[in-house]
């Protein structure tokens, strides 16, 4: 109240009601969404790998593009910190166009490769279950390597900044948070799926 002396108690309660309404809305959306996932899982609505591939086409493409973009962002930060003079000579427009083109090319190549290994066998259409065959192993393996490279680049960047600029502890904390989120995000997903496929878990 002291920070905002002009705000009355009734205004605070009005703001609290709006907050509660928003939180309840998100909770209901979460309950409905998760209930639908449970319902589909319980009913085991199975479709062919071809159908599932096309259903998840945009989402898997997004996974591929974002994975490669995260690698290039990490590489960009590493090069900028390691050799700022060389980095400043880049033509920004061509640089960005090349990164986006390589990311889209990566996604297109893996879409074509994954399509060649699809079958008419039924599957529960989740992103991790929407592919089959040897190309799935390759896709998960390459994605895991790219994700490990991102973490390696950020770890190298953290060590470099600690050695060079001790006053940048806040930047180091930010980078460490990125590494932590990345480890428990796509790396855990891709690495876990790759491991499960290699050991034959169902």
UniProtKB/TrEMBL annotation:
<feature type="domain" description="G-protein coupled receptors family 1 profile">
    <location>
        <begin position="1"/>
        <end position="187"/>
    </location>
</feature>
<dbReference type="InterPro" id="IPR000276">
    <property type="entry name" value="GPCR_Rhodpsn"/>
</dbReference>
<feature type="transmembrane region" description="Helical">
    <location>
        <begin position="178"/>
        <end position="197"/>
    </location>
</feature>
<dbReference type="InterPro" id="IPR019424">
    <property type="entry name" value="7TM_GPCR_Srsx"/>
</dbReference>
<keyword id="KW-0472">Membrane</keyword>
<dbReference type="InterPro" id="IPR017452">
    <property type="entry name" value="GPCR_Rhodpsn_7TM"/>
</dbReference>
<protein>
    <recommendedName>
        <fullName>G-protein coupled receptors family 1 profile domain-containing protein</fullName>
    </recommendedName>
</protein>
<dbReference type="GO" id="GO:0004930">
    <property type="term" value="F:G protein-coupled receptor activity"/>
</dbReference>
<dbReference type="Pfam" id="PF10320">
    <property type="entry name" value="7TM_GPCR_Srsx"/>
</dbReference>
<keyword id="KW-0812">Transmembrane</keyword>
<dbReference type="InterPro" id="IPR047130">
    <property type="entry name" value="7TM_GPCR_Srsx_nematod"/>
</dbReference>
<feature type="transmembrane region" description="Helical">
    <location>
        <begin position="138"/>
        <end position="157"/>
    </location>
</feature>
<feature type="transmembrane region" description="Helical">
    <location>
        <begin position="20"/>
        <end position="42"/>
    </location>
</feature>
<feature type="transmembrane region" description="Helical">
    <location>
        <begin position="95"/>
        <end position="118"/>
    </location>
</feature>
<keyword id="KW-1133">Transmembrane helix</keyword>
<feature type="transmembrane region" description="Helical">
    <location>
        <begin position="48"/>
        <end position="75"/>
    </location>
</feature>
<dbReference type="GO" id="GO:0016020">
    <property type="term" value="C:membrane"/>
</dbReference>
């Amino acid at each position: 109240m002291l920070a905002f002396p002009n705000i009355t108690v009734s205004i605070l309660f009005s703001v609290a009601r709006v907050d509660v309404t928003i939180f309840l809305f998100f909770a209901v959306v979460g309950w409905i969404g998760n209930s639908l996932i449970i319902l589909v899982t319980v009913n085991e609505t199975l479709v062919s790998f071809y159908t599932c591939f096309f259903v998840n086409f945009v989402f898997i493409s997004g996974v591929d593009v974002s994975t490669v973009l995260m690698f290039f962002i990490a590489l960009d930060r590493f090069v900028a910190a390691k050799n700022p003079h060389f980095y400043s000579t880049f033509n920004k427009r061509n640089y960005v166009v090349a990164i986006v083109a390589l990311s889209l090319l990566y996604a297109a190549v893996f879409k074509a490769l994954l399509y060649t290994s699809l079958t008419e066998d039924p599957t529960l259409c989740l992103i991790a279950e929407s592919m089959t065959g040897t190309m799935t192993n390759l896709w998960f393996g390459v994605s895991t390597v790219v994700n490990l490279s991102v973490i390696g680049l950020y770890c190298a960047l953290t060590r470099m900044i600690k050695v060079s600029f001790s006053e940048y502890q806040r930047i180091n904390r930010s980078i460490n948070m990125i590494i932590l989120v990345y480890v428990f995000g796509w790396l855990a997903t891709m690495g876990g799926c790759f491991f499960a496929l290699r050991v034959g878990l169902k």
